[in-house]
Amino acid sequence: MASLSVLGVAKHFGQAKVLESVNFTVASGEVLAVLGASGSGKTSLLRLIAGFERVDGGSIEIGGEQVSGLALHVPPEKRRVGYV
């Protein structure tokens, strides 16, 4: 398992700000639970990590390698992230 870093991530859909300045790091072997009210951006965050959506700000690193940023988007099939 690789580490995961979400650094200043933002996502907007039109005028709606779904995520803004999200920051966290999960070390290899750690477990993270994402909790929140309906419509708070949990699924959007997971879709950004998996690569199904592009970030509007910030970056995502998996295993120390950047996979998302304003000028970078590694496709889902190259990220080796499971999504159920």
User: What series of H and E elements makes up the topology?
Assistant: EEHEEE
Helix content: 10-25%
Task: Report on the biggest sheet.
Answer: 5 strands, antiparallel
Give the strand order, joined by hyphens, for the main sheet. 2-1-3-4-5
Shape: globular
Strand content: 35-45%
First-residue to last-residue Cα separation: 17 Å
Low-confidence stretches: none
Mean pLDDT over all positions: 95
Indicate the radius of gyration in whole angstroms.
12 Å
Structural class based on helices, strands and sheet pairing: mainly beta
Number of strands: 5
Number of helices: 1
Question: Any descriptors?
Answer:
single chain; 84 residues; mainly beta; five-stranded antiparallel sheet; 1 helix; globular
Account of the 3D structure:
This protein has a five-stranded antiparallel sheet with strand order 2-1-3-4-5, covered by helices on one side. β4 and β5 form a beta hairpin. The chain has 84 residues and is mainly β. It has one helix at 42-50, and strands at residues 4-13, 16-26, 57-62, 65-69, 72-73. It contains one helix and five strands, in the order ββαβββ.
